[in-house]
Amino acid sequence: MRTLLPVIVLAAVWFHPQTVSPVSAQVTSSDLSMLGLIFRNRFVPFSEQEMQPELLAVRERVSILGDAGDDVERYKVMIEGMARMYLGAWDEGIEVASILDISLPAKLYEPGSTVPVEIASLYERETPLEGRYAVQVRFLGPTEEPIYGSDLLMLEGLTAVSTEVVIPREATSGRYLVEYSLWAEGASDPIVRTSRSIYVIEAFEERVTAMLFDSRRPQLRRQVGRSSSRALANTTLLWHLDMYQRGRREWLAGAYMGYPVIMNQIFEQGTLMVEPMQFDKEIGLAEGFINDLGLGRDPLATRSGDMRLAYRSSVDRELVPFRLFVPDDYDRSQSYPLVVALHGAGGDENTFMDSFDGTLKKNARDRGYIIASVNGRGPYGGYRNASAQDVIDVLDLVQRVYPIDETRTYLMGHSMGGGGTVRIGFEYADRFAALAPIAGYGSAEDLAKAPEMPLFLAQGELDALVPVERARNFYQAAQALGMQSVHYVENEGTDHVAIVAEVMDQIFDWFDLHHR
After folding, report:
1. Is the predicted pLDDT of residue 324 greater than 60, yes or no?
2. End-to-end CA distance of the chain
3. Which residue range is the domain that position 332 belongs to?
4. Does 422 fall in a domain?
5. In terms of pLDDT, which residue wins out, 483 or 257?
6. Among 274, 296, 320, 345, which residue's Cα sits nearest to residue 36?
7. Are strands 370-374 and 319-326 parallel, antiparallel or unpaired?
């Protein structure tokens, strides 16, 4: 890789940062929702195991505040618990790390662009700081090699500070990191170090402008009505163009991304940190769709692999993304089994495809399955109303466009997606050959709608979000109904998240056995 010149412009050193008066950061409802999930899944069982007075006191304070408590107070207490768990301490420096956030205005840039960086407080601290603190900003390349690092920017209390990063003109396309670290004066190691990602795309403005022009050409537009496949390529193209235009104007944070930086560091210790889009690669997909349509070809006729597609919703005509995996040896003359996957709370269409150690795509690749991972109308849609229709819309669309074996179509989901799998799977039992809810269930009334449905249930014994008793009770309800094809797996020592990768091979074994 060529060496990039250190041409980042950083406006401050220890004693002269540029200050910004307004506090632009804040604790959001999404922050609290995700923090609450992680707190219950990780901290609660940890505190039960350790039984330290400080940990038990944190649990008690969270319980007293409840879900309706003051947002800032809930954030403070849960972050203290997570810091005690992951960082092993709670002091003024860690508290400062939990208050400060780093924000970038946009996601997509060209080489030579300037990236404004602001570090601001999520809320005002009630008492003055005893120590002195500084932040450092570094710019890291696609392989996380340092391109440049700033001097330490001294914090005057917790007043917001700003600086800027100038992307080298020699930068090639790819994912780059704006890294943030917080230091106590005189310390040899930072209190916290984490980053925000941006994408650099060469000739970005020129490429997007060309795609916008070409997408409106009459000969291309005439192709769209020729088939469901071409129509899907067109809606996908429209969605991608919208993302590219938004990404150069605003920050696009996907599931598990864009939270306060102390939360990002916590999430980095798990398996759920995924990017919303691989912009540098996916812009090529959109350009390929335009080229194929312009030449009168079906863009999806021979394409295989992992693709982010988008359709127009039957509910409100919104463009909604989903991920599709097609085996590398895809042959339109053959029929393929299909798995529709529903993500859990806090996730999106990327979660199953990019997380859980890659076990979903590995099984699909090895066994010849097509996979569709739905958006579900965002991280907390719950697979009800428009969120549920999202599942059926994707199912209908994939079965129209691809040679799907409708006797081998399956539904699976994790957590919130497990509950959606039960509700939708039994409501539309004639559409699925088997179901596999993981750490998320439904009611006996759901089961009674189709007691003949093959059902695979998976649960971690140490799940603090969905207690193991719920899984056992749901399994017992299936047995009480006399359901003949139910398999229950309960893994000892496994939590709410780890169970997914552990049982993925078994789920596909189950699917392999069942036809409708």
Report:
1. yes
2. 53
3. 304-516
4. yes
5. 483
6. 345
7. antiparallel
| The pLDDT value given to residue 276 | 75
**Interval 119-146: pLDDT, tens:** 999 999 989 999 999 999 999 999 999 9
- Map residue 123 onto helix, strand or coil: coil
Residues in the chain: 516
Q: How far apart are CA 154 and CA 175, in angstroms?
A: 28
Does residue 200 belong to any structural domain of this protein? no
What pLDDT score was predicted for residue 23? Answer: 41
- 333 lies in a domain? yes
Q: How many CB atoms lie within 10 A of CB 419?
A: 25
How would you classify residue 9: left for phi > 0, otherwise alpha for psi between -120 and 50, otherwise beta? beta
- The sign of the torsion formed by the CA atoms of 52, 57, 58, 63 equals positive
- CATH number of the domain within which 468 lies: 3.40.50.1820
Two tokens, residue 165: 């990063």
Give burial (CB, 10 Å; 0-12/13-18/19+) of 493: exposed
Residue 51 in domain: no
Write the DSSP assignment of 447-487 as a string of letters: HHT-TTS-EEEEEETT-SSS-HHHHHHHHHHHHHTT-SSEE
Alpha carbon distance 411, 510 (integer Å): 12
